[in-house]
Amino acid sequence: MAIINYFSTLIPPLPYALPPAVAKHPGPFLACASSLWGFYLNLQGRRAHEIVKAHQRYGRVVRVAPNLLSFSNPQAVREIYMNPNFTKSSRFYIAKHIFNEDMLLTFRDPHRHRQRRKLLSRGFSQAALVEFEPQIADKINLLLRHWGRLAQENNPIDVYPWAHMLGFDIIYHLMFGIDPQSVKTGKESKVMPWLRAWRPTFNYKEMVPPLGQYGPYIPGRVGSYFRLVQKWKNYAMDIVRDCRETGTKTPFLSRVLGGVDESLGRPLTDSELAEECMGGMFGGSGTTANTFVYALWGIIRDASIVNRLREELDEAFPDPDIVPDSVTCAQLPFLNAVLSETLRRYPTITGLLPREAQEDVIVDGICIPKGANVATGNLTVHLDETSFPDPLTFNPDRWLASDAPRDALVPFSVGARKCIGMNLAELELRVWLAAFFKRFDARLDKSMTENDMDIYDSFSASPRGGRLLVWLEKRRR
Questions:
Q1: What structural domains and CATH numbers belong to the chain?
Q2: How confident is the model over 318-372, as pLDDT tens digits?
Q3: Smallest Cα–Cα separation from 65: which of 97, 32, 27, 96?
Q4: Which of 111, 247, 280, 399 is deepest in the core (most CB within 10 A)?
Q5: Class of residue 57 by CB neighbours under 10 A (exposed 0-12, middle 13-18, buried 19+)
Q6: Contact 92, 377 (CB under 8 A)
Q7: What is the DSSP string of 384-452?
Q8: What CA–CA distance (Å, rounded) separates 90 from 100?
Q9: Burial (CB count <10 Å: 0-12, 13-18, 19+), residue 372
């Protein structure tokens, strides 16, 4: 009965029953008619692309669901996500529960979110990352040594799975003080397939919320995703219990294990902490790995970008075999321009983040009535031609200009709910890219196509082809 009742909400009330301030905005007919439009495109990995097309056709404000307006103007990002008169839309964020606990990503109540973020933020602070940087450098060096040996076999290297193994090893080690050794062994951890299974459950739970409770009991492929997530949850709880028993003191756990979430008035249970750790594993591994893969795709295809990057790196780091330090990397203009352009052109969080108006409010000069839902999407904002002329071109120089549109670059969102792992991601990517281009000459395999690297959007994004084949050769200097 719950499922039947839910499906009755997929078709909206008659247009006149929607607030006129929402219903008047144009959008694709099927999007305005039913939320099924978005769900279907999510399953195809195409929703973000279709929303970009809709903005190109209809303008800066587009209706992409019966009661959801998408904005393309970058100024709308801060007007929505830094405005206390908006709260997270319930249906969307309930679907983002990993299993059955609220966590940092899903809290709708600002006070609860603020207290949970306060409890977790120590593990991702600059001080914690400085302490952990030697482990990051060791893992990057080990990966590049592996690639150097594989390059001698005279075959292209698929860097995609290796990048995901490195991203996973780093975040897992940071949180638990345990090295999964995926990079060392060249075999992904058993946890990684469980982690990947979470992403499809987003869409299924948003379409049919009761699957959050009954998903593991559904036969076939759909149910298999939920069963894998259930395995992951049980595994994470075992790790948390082990860490409590052994007194693990990583930067992430040192405060969390015994600390009090002030909104609850108590420490986190094993179940609550396990799901926060699961969220960290998901958010801190695949997104960084995919950004690195897209950076290689963007850089290697333009010899002038490669040469300018190398000139800067060689001057800053004369030793060709070191893993550069993060402090120096953060001060290199062209390296950071390349990273900014990668985050712009290939954002790895592409899903809309809907907010519901708690009272009438103005966004981008438009009155949004109480109860209406609004959102921006990174792909839409980052391809806005007003802020980014020739937006499909990978052009790091746009970030070296004095009037660079930095406020329009929002890969980690903004405000109190921006990505808690932003510092880790930027450190990792700067050092990884610097070490790679100091050590290797690289060219793309001829089999690689634009379609392989097309953004597959399912809230988080990845290359549609799931691969990046690269020929590597040790640099001769």
A1: 2-474 (1.10.630.10)
A2: 998 899 999 999 999 999 999 999 999 999 999 899 999 999 999 999 999 999 9
A3: 32
A4: 280
A5: exposed
A6: no
A7: -TTTSSSTTS--GGGGTSTT--GGG--TT--GGGS-TTHHHHHHHHHHHHHHHHHHEEEEE-TT--TTT
A8: 15
A9: buried
Question: Which residue bears the tokens 């195809």?
Answer: 44
Pairing of strands 440-444, 469-474: antiparallel
For residue 314, what are the CA distances in angstroms to 319, 321, 429, 475, 476? 8, 11, 18, 12, 13
> What pTM was estimated for this model as a whole?
0.94
Token representation of residue 157: 């290297």
Q: Tell me, what DSSP letter sits at residue 14?
A: P
What do you get for the CA distance between the two ends of the chain, in Å?
Answer: 70
Q: What is the pLDDT of residues 229-247, one digit of tens each?
A: 999 999 999 999 999 999 8
Strand order from edge to edge, sheet including 469-474? 157-158, 469-474, 440-444
Report the alpha-carbon distance of residue 352 to residue 51 in Å, rounded: 10
| C-alpha span between 135 and 96 (Å, rounded) | 31
Measure CA 229 to chain center.
19
